[in-house]
Amino acid sequence: MSLPDEDQVFNIAVDGQLIPARHGQTIAAALMAAGRRVFRRTQSGAPRGLFCGMGVCFECLVTVDGVAGQRACITPARPGMQIHLPPGEEKVDGDD
Ligand code: FES
Q1: Which entry of 9, 30, 45, 75 is 20 to 30 Å from 81 by CA?
Q2: What is the 8-class DSSP label of residue 94?
Q3: Is the minimum distance from the CB of 92 to ligand 1 under 6 angstroms?
Q4: Is any atom of ligand 1 closer than 6 Å to the C-beta of 52?
Q5: Is 58 in the pocket of ligand 1 (CB under 6 A)?
Q6: Three-state DSSP class for 84?
Q7: What is the per-residue pLDDT for 29?
């Protein structure tokens, strides 16, 4: 059995735009490396993105392969993954 090469780069699609990711990297890390700081917006339009970086605050929620509410900071990037960043109108539990 061989482990994935950490230097192997693959693409994930973020709202249809391909960005590079590496094995072992989280979705949040790939987004940040690609310069994407805002992952979603609250009902009032306030930007949200990487905050705690360890799965506690739920500020980094994205939709992964059609499954909403996934924490980008603890979800590993996989080749061919389809990520959608929720629009500002979407209500997310915990928003005030
Ligand atoms: S940044 Fe806090 S849960 Fe992801």
Answers
A1: 45
A2: T
A3: no
A4: yes
A5: yes
A6: strand
A7: 97
Nearest to 59 by CA among 68, 44, 43, 47: 47
User: Which three-class secondary structure string do you get for 8-67?
Assistant: CEEEEEECCEEEEEECCCEHHHHHHHCCCCCCEECCCCCEECCCCCCCCCCCCEEEECCE
What does pTM read for this prediction?
0.84
pLDDT-flagged residues of the chain (< 70): 1-6, 88-96
> b/e per residue, 43-52, with b = 16+ CB within 10 A?
eeeeebbbee
* DSSP summary character for residue 76: B
* Smallest CA separation from ligand 1 atom 3, residue: 55
Distances (CA, A) of 69 to 7, 22, 73, 87: 28, 22, 12, 13
